[in-house]
Amino acid sequence: MFAIGHISLGYITGKALGKLTRQNPSIPLLWTLSLLPDIDLLIPSIRHRGSTHSLIFALLILAPFISDRPKKTLPYFAALLIHSTIGDFITSGGVMLLWPLSSDMMSYRSPLKMGSAAETYVELTLFAALILVLIASGDLKNLIKTENRNLILSVPLCTMVLPIYFEYPVKIPSSLLIPHFILIGMIALLIAKSFIQILARTIKSKI
After folding, report:
1. Count of other CB atoms within 10 angstroms of residue 171
2. pLDDT tens-digit readout, 78-107
3. Model-level pTM?
4. DSSP for 46-65?
5. Pick from 39, 54, 61, 96: CA 20 to 30 A from residue 1's CA?
């Protein structure tokens, strides 16, 4: 699955679980965690869809928070976990779900192969759902209100830029380019706005 599918699926799942558990998860954090396994794209020595896509990796990251605040952590854990268990397990050629216990690339034999017409349709549908939920829930308005947490979106921004400009690890289908550029533009603006506001406060405090 490409970045727009991962972000959309992670956000919608996290938002739904937040509703069920009466939590209000941070949208920047949901988006970041939904693409966090793809941080391996930024580390040359690590195989893509390898160790960072492992269920054990996900547990290690959020285990302390799960034990301390399980209800509050559940939406974030789901956003992180669904990247590998749904997004890549079903659509990619394989993912190391059980690393380091096993280095086997596991996958589900599905017609939704990355770049296929069916998979592209699913991603576009998820992206449309993302936009609708953002608007209907008021999250879009809240995102515009700058907060320091928006800076963590630098991680998903980098993992989204690589496939578009360097075709790494795969080339993004032309039908998905516009949604990708919309998300990249939105994330870049949020980061820039947060950075400018933090810089302005820092300068003001020193005057």
Report:
1. 11
2. 999 999 999 888 887 789 988 988 888 887
3. 0.90
4. S-TTSGGG-HHHHHHHHHHH
5. 61
